[in-house]
Amino acid sequence: MCVGPVKESTQQVYMERILSVLVLIQRNLDEELSLEEYARVAHFSPYHFHRIFRGMVGEHEEEYLRGSGMFSKGDPEKYLTIIRYRVKKVK
Predict the structure, then answer these.
(1) According to the 3-state scheme, what is the secondary structure of the chain?
(2) 72 with 78: CB under 8 angstroms?
(3) Has residue 85 got a pLDDT over 80?
(4) pLDDT value at position 79?
(5) 69, 60 Cβ separation under 8 angstroms
(6) Residue 33: what pLDDT?
(7) Closest CA to 74 of 18, 30, 22
(8) Residue 39 near residue 13 (C-beta atoms within 8 A)
(9) Would you say 60 and 71 are in contact if contact means Cβ atoms under 8 Å apart?
(10) pLDDT per residue over 14-70, tens digit each?
């Protein structure tokens, strides 16, 4: 799933916002944060955050947290690389 046709500058901003959420998750693995909190950090509405996170990371935030989705928890830099690859693939 992709986030759809958006300008390259917008894609860069989205990547940075989603990466900030991935870093937040990694730093707070012992805490349960809400969808609203993730959306606030990423500067999206909860609805748009949910869609954009899925489109860029490849799984919903709940799947990511459980570690049962496509990727397991790890280095947030790895996810930036994955997101960059997905954005290039969409172009």
Answers:
(1) CCCCCCCHHHHHHHHHHHHHHHHHHHHCCCCCCCHHHHHHHHCCCHHHHHHHHHHHHCCCHHHHHHCCCCCCCCCHHHHHHHHHHHHHHHC
(2) no
(3) no
(4) 64
(5) yes
(6) 86
(7) 22
(8) no
(9) no
(10) 988 998 898 888 788 778 889 999 999 999 999 999 999 988 888 888 877 776 333
Residue pair 60/50 in contact (Cβ under 8 Å)? The answer is yes
- In whole angstroms, what is the distance from residue 7 CA to residue 15 CA? 12
Q: How far is CA 42 from CA 1, 37, 49, 72, 80, in A?
A: 19, 9, 7, 21, 14
Tokens read off for 7: 């300008």
Give yes or no for a contact between 58 and 82, defined as CB atoms under 8 angstroms apart.
yes
Which tokens is 87 given?
A: 């954005």
